[in-house]
Amino acid sequence: MASPAHSHSHGDDRHHAPAGGHGHGDDHPLVGHLVPMSTLIGTAVVLLALTFFTVAARWLDVGEFNIVIALAIATVKATLVGLYFMHLRWDRPFNVLTFVGSVAFVGLFMGFALIDVHAYELERDTGNPIGVVTVLEQTAPAAPIATR
To answer: Would you state the pLDDT for residue 52?
Structure first.
């Protein structure tokens, strides 16, 4: 049986099985955190709306800012999933800090990767090869292509 100094309890034993209740003598929680169904449904509706905005943003032409819009929506969606479906909102602060730190580092690394994107602009090929343009004009005249 675990001593009080090594117990996983945080001073509140209401949600824990009694020692020996299942034959192993361990102190395990009966349930994690129960989230109201209305919260889960509300979060799912917001995620579906953000998915709609992601698809709608594809048709919005704001140049290179499209990637910023798409990544911002994806970040909000990932945060909602982490907070509500993975229960980080009710978890220990260290786990929330780990999640926020991970998202921040991904943003930092992407930022470093995008810092010199214009340095290679002269080496990039613009447009499509002639054969591709011909096929696209014949099979999909409304397709957005780089050059006509």
So the answer is: 96
